[in-house]
Amino acid sequence: MSIATYIEMGTELKHFLSLQRPLGLKFCLSEEEIPPKAKRPLRDFNIHMGVCQAVNTARNFGYTIGMTLEDMFCLPGASVFGLMDFDYSFYPHHTKDETAGRKLDKFYNERNRLLPKDKYKAVVFSPLDRLMVEPDVIVVYGSPAQIAKISKAFTWHGETVSTLFAGGLGCSTYAAAFAEKKPLIKLAAGGEKIMAGTGEYEVDICFPAEQLPDVLEGLKGTQRMLPYPMICTTLLNEPVVPEDYKITYRELANRL
């Protein structure tokens, strides 16, 4: 798909769910693939950034952010993005002892092998409604209800959506969605909240960019079973479901 098509679909996604600003993520084979007008953390802000900072800067300010290894603050994040190889352990900062740390290190080592080292030289995060690159992955932050609606769009096509929380290295979810070609939900851990300011009530989902048309179709297709926005009015009333949705206690009489 062309960049123009992604912009059109990204704008539709944003408006359908009243989202802040969905992003496109591109893994670049060379630094030259970074758009000339993209912001570079070290050059333009005089700081090194974590991936989570770059994501939140892009979605809050509307910047396109391009990063090479020299822009990266977190080396484990740079490693799972394929920009370098870095040995990392969750112990002692994240676990009570080395045994617990080794369990989580297995997660890191698996994520660290998803992308070949030194193949990708840069990454770009660009808002979908003003996209500058053809994306590999779509990243969407929103409320639990908004992200549930996007997840429901995948179930419209028979696909389930997973999440895996390790208390750190959340940015590896984006690499996993790219490498494994599947949608993934991420819950922000401490580093992302402290360094990047992700809100307490924010969740994000990422998925391969080529699935964006399926998401838009699923958003519309699931409006009957999971409308958005939705207000619950049944807490003290018996729920109502479509007449042809035979799941309630009334069906027991038909089985006797």
Give the tally of β-strands.
7
Q: What's the structural domain tally?
A: 1
Rounded Rg: 20 Å
Helix-strand string: HEHHEHHEEHEHEHEHH
| Helical coverage, percent range | 25-40%
How would you sum up this structure, described in words?
This protein is of the alpha+beta class and 256 residues long. The protein has one domain (3-226). It has helices spanning 3-17, 41-45, 51-61, 75-80, 98-112, 144-155, 172-180, 190-196, 212-221, 250-255, and strands spanning 23-28, 65-67, 122-127, 137-142, 162-163, 184-186, 203-208. Strands 2-3-1-4-7-6-5 form a seven-stranded mixed sheet. Helix 1 (3-17) packs parallel to helix 9. The radius of gyration is 20 Å and the shape is globular. The termini are far apart.
List strands and helices in order, with pairings:
Elements: H1 3-17, E1 23-28, H2 41-45, H3 51-61, E2 65-67, H4 75-80, H5 98-112, E3 122-127, E4 137-142, H6 144-155, E5 162-163, H7 172-180, E6 184-186, H8 190-196, E7 203-208, H9 212-221, H10 250-255
Parallel strand pairs: 5-6
Antiparallel strand pairs: 1-3, 1-4, 2-3, 4-7, 6-7
